[in-house]
Amino acid sequence: MAELSGQNWVSRFPGSNSTQTLSPVFKANLEAFLTSLRNAGVRVTLSATRRPPERAYLMHWSWKIARGRVQPENVPAKSGVDIDWVHRGAGGKVDTTASINAAKAMVRAYGMTNLNVAPALNSRHTEGNAVDMSLSWSGNLEIKNKRGDTVVINTLPRDGMNSQLHEVGKTFGVIKYHGGSNDKPHWSTDGR
User: Fold this and answer.
1) How confident is the model at residue 172 (pLDDT cuts 50, 70, 90)?
2) Can you give the pTM of this predicted structure?
3) In a domain, 137, yes or no
4) Does 32 reside within a domain?
5) What whole-number distance in Å separates Cα of residue 85 and Cα of residue 4?
6) Sorting pLDDT into bands at 50, 70 and 90, what band is 182?
7) What is the number of domains present in the chain?
């Protein structure tokens, strides 16, 4: 029997925040970029690297249900994930409010409340070619690009949304997400 959706699902199919789980080429590129960032004094927090497909499924559909983009009864099943997105009340009647609230609890527990786009079912994360990371610094940043040239970043913001920093990341083959602020922490092999 399928288990009802809710926050209890979030601890299952854990993702990684380690570079060790990434594809070999992206791992090497990211680690070189991280070294440059840290050497320049940037505070770096990795929140996600590789994501199992089952976790991507749970994240994707909980976000869509919570945002009213899909009705819980219309979510397709996934092999290996015995979840019931449809909560029912007395007499077996669909309880849409309970279903949406359970999805919202999952979204909060996954840390996706400020995410403005549904996590992809098949993505650079499931391939091991992406990272979600928070970056911050104070003052001007002097950072070396892959060629070893020092780049001075004196523009705002002083975080991962800085366009000058995006150019530095590109030299390492670590590309900032092309969708702007829809997914602020996301970097990958191609910006998707």
Assistant:
1) very high
2) 0.83
3) yes
4) yes
5) 6
6) confident
7) 1
Domain of residue 33: give its range: 22-50+128-188
Give the contacts of 77 (CB within 8 A, at least 6 positions apart): none
Query: Mean per-residue pLDDT for 111-125?
Result: 92
Q: How far apart are CA 104 and CA 122, in angstroms?
A: 22
pLDDT of residue 188: 98
In a domain, 4, yes or no: no
Alpha helix segments (H runs only) across the chain = 24-39, 53-66, 96-110, 124-127, 163-171
- Residue 39 amino acid letter: N
- Please tell me the distance from the alpha carbon of residue 24 to that of residue 43, in angstroms, as a whole number: 24
Residue given tokens 């309970």 in the structure block: 98
Read off the tokens for 45: 């927090």
Mean pLDDT of all residues in 20-40 = 98
Biggest distance spanned by C-alpha atoms of the chain: 69
